[in-house]
Amino acid sequence: MVKGLYTAYTGMINEQHRMDVLTNNLANANTNGYKKEGATSQAFSDQLALKIKDYTDAPFTARGLGIINPGVKIGEGYVDWSEGPMKETGNTFDLALGGYGFFGIEYTNKAVNIERDVAGQTDIMYTRDGNFTLTNEGVLVTQDGDFVLSQDGGHIEVDPALPVEINTLGEIIQDGEVVATVGKFDFEKVTYPDGRITYNTLEHYGENMYIPTDDATQITSTASVYAGFLEQSNISVVDEMVNMIAVQRNYDTNQRMITTIDGTLDIAANQLGRLS
């Protein structure tokens, strides 16, 4: 095998994966509460190249030629959990969280999809998207009609005829009394040596919903609730476009390497040693 071909091929596959992640980020630049995703790259383990069957130098003894690296492989994906900027909407039932935590949603899938085989299946999911609304019956729901959960895990119901005030604790106040509390939920996090904090026990569902795994441990959230605001995605479109250009150039470089090696193989196979 020509190692250069394989090395360039693995580089192209890796850059294609990075491009998929970047385009998904750009597609969700305007999705409320969306968290930027990224991809890491890992080198295959270095291998010691050996020179064998060289009878001019210690017959039948392998001699090291040096270290080679056979290419790159796709590493782990990660999520950037840093807060996105907040946009003021003036709508009382638009809520944003300041700090770590999530809103709880009683999500019901509306149709069969790639992750749910049965329509109508209900799961408790978590999101940073606080774009909520109040039904005519006074129930707080998402824009898709899924119930927003209170701190005790129940549905949130208020009197639609009375004014509503929501403080930073998530308490919903009507006529001077607390009638419900918007649920704030959090999970144990992992802190890396570089200071980066992440959730290893949350899985994506859609673009801004998360499902805890069986290993997830729920903890008390200290986040503040801001009524009349929505958290935007934490994506910088300019940065993503710059990264996309770099990925495209890396892909083109690997492609040119394959073309160059193919040309040398053609000369070796079809021109060298030809009798004129």
TrEMBL record:
<feature type="domain" description="Flagellar basal-body/hook protein C-terminal">
    <location>
        <begin position="227"/>
        <end position="270"/>
    </location>
</feature>
<dbReference type="Pfam" id="PF22692">
    <property type="entry name" value="LlgE_F_G_D1"/>
</dbReference>
<keyword id="KW-0282">Flagellum</keyword>
<dbReference type="GO" id="GO:0009425">
    <property type="term" value="C:bacterial-type flagellum basal body"/>
</dbReference>
<dbReference type="InterPro" id="IPR037925">
    <property type="entry name" value="FlgE/F/G-like"/>
</dbReference>
<feature type="domain" description="Flagellar basal body rod protein N-terminal">
    <location>
        <begin position="5"/>
        <end position="35"/>
    </location>
</feature>
<keyword id="KW-0966">Cell projection</keyword>
<keyword id="KW-0969">Cilium</keyword>
<protein>
    <submittedName>
        <fullName>Flagellar basal-body rod protein FlgG</fullName>
    </submittedName>
</protein>
<dbReference type="InterPro" id="IPR001444">
    <property type="entry name" value="Flag_bb_rod_N"/>
</dbReference>
<dbReference type="Pfam" id="PF06429">
    <property type="entry name" value="Flg_bbr_C"/>
</dbReference>
<dbReference type="InterPro" id="IPR010930">
    <property type="entry name" value="Flg_bb/hook_C_dom"/>
</dbReference>
<dbReference type="GO" id="GO:0071978">
    <property type="term" value="P:bacterial-type flagellum-dependent swarming motility"/>
</dbReference>
<dbReference type="InterPro" id="IPR020013">
    <property type="entry name" value="Flagellar_FlgE/F/G"/>
</dbReference>
<keyword id="KW-0975">Bacterial flagellum</keyword>
<dbReference type="Pfam" id="PF00460">
    <property type="entry name" value="Flg_bb_rod"/>
</dbReference>
<feature type="domain" description="Flagellar hook protein FlgE/F/G-like D1">
    <location>
        <begin position="121"/>
        <end position="172"/>
    </location>
</feature>
<dbReference type="InterPro" id="IPR019776">
    <property type="entry name" value="Flagellar_basal_body_rod_CS"/>
</dbReference>
<comment type="similarity">
    <text>Belongs to the flagella basal body rod proteins family.</text>
</comment>
<dbReference type="InterPro" id="IPR053967">
    <property type="entry name" value="LlgE_F_G-like_D1"/>
</dbReference>
